[in-house]
Amino acid sequence: MMKKICSAITIPLVVALLLPGCLKDHCTQTYSYFVPVYKTTEEVRANIKSNAPRSIEQAGKIYLRGHYIFLNEVDKGIHIIDNSIPETPRNVAFIDIPGNMDMAVKGNTLYADAYTDLVTLDITDPLNVKTTKIIENVFPYRQYYGLFAADNNKVIVDWIKKDTTVNIDCENGGFFGVNFRRDQMFFATDVLSLSNSSAHSQGSAGSSKSASPFGVGGSMARFAIEGYYLYSVTQFDLNVFDISRTDKPDLTNKVNIGWDIETIFPFQEKLFIGSTTGMYIYNISNPGSPQQEGKFAHVQSCDPVIADEKYAYVTLRTGTNCGGVDNRLEVLDIADVKNPALLNRYDLNNPHGLSKSGNFLFVCDGDAGLRVFNAKDVNNLELITTIEGINAYDVIAMNYIALVVTNDGLYQYWYADPNNIQLLSKINLTKP
């Protein structure tokens, strides 16, 4: 039994403030909760359109195609940036794609998720994009940030914060003293962490793809293009799309992988797939029918992965929905893809995305900055430098330019001399 008179205690729980108080046997609690805003799929699709460039509020995943940068803004759409002159990149268009988190580009065709659907867009004119095909419900396990119960016939497009004070049982307050309805959400997840999604370093382990018709994504990517196929991962499955008709993709296969799949990275007829419990290697020599070749298990943690001819590089981090207690970089020997072996591990601060260019390994280490290693000897990585003062999320390193996504902007660095890395430009974010 609580005392007859008690003082209020403020307990911060991310965005909720729970203020317990009571008088005699009557207890109250003040809290904040979020109610989802729903739209029909027809309403969502009607909002897929191109617009003039606009300010970037939150940088998400990145994709590089030719001299264009495609920068996702979570659940809102994709910014198209002309990077012909890296010192002065130009934001040239914004494509509204509600529910967007991932993308890939081949030629003048953009593939993007819109909540549960795959949307195909002709981006020949970025200011006048055209939808050429929509494949419905190919991403059924849409990851919303937080706890929710979604309506099967609609999608959640926003959350409205509500504050309320309720009477509670002094002996039993329910979930943190609050009994929630199923259509409400106690919001306690950091959207900026992007821990349920993962943006992009596909192909960035080398620069050979820079002249190919498809582009390069970051190590947080859930989309990857190899040849005439687009691959995407959901929480459980690997989707295979035939894109031989670029503007009319067909879903031709779905392969169950396991649980909590996060990222995908293609390299030389292999797909390296990161999950919260390990890395999977799939052979795509028969591109329409991926076959699992190997797996490496690790402690539960978020797990972006990249690879080159001999080694795979994996980062594990804490402080996310993935769980985990380790912050480190792991280097795996993949000479025998059926039995990947751990070569070494390196403790870091809070590693996120990574990219490799030649012998240089770039690791985004959260608020500790961007680490640049000499990876010539993978058994003894040598830290060349750390670019401090940024909270680094993902990176694509190619042709001596490192494109880095942070929580305050999009940076470009010239690394021809890794001992003297130079800042070329920064696109600032505009906070709402």
**Percent range for β-strand residues:** over 45%
Q: How would you classify the quaternary structure? A: single chain
Q: Which segments are poorly predicted (pLDDT under 50) over 5 or more consecutive residues?
A: 1-23, 145-150, 173-204, 206-211
> Given the C-alpha coordinates, what overall shape results?
globular
> How far is the N terminus from the C terminus?
45 Å
Strand arrangement across the biggest beta sheet: 4-8-7-6-5-14
Give the name of the CATH architecture of the largest domain. 6 Propeller
Q: CATH topology of the largest domain, what is it called? A: Neuraminidase
Which whole number gives the mean pLDDT?
Answer: 82
Structural class: mainly beta
Text of the CATH class of the largest domain? Mainly Beta
Summarize the structure.
The protein has about 425 residues and is an all-beta fold.
Summarize the structure in words:
The chain has one helix and 34 strands. Strands 4-8-7-6-5-14 form a six-stranded antiparallel sheet, with no helix packed on it. A four-stranded antiparallel sheet has the order 1-2-3-13. A four-stranded antiparallel sheet has the order 9-10-11-12, with no helix packed on it. 42% of the residues are buried. The longest helix is centred in the first third of the chain and has 6 residues, at 41-46. The chain is mainly β and 432 residues long.
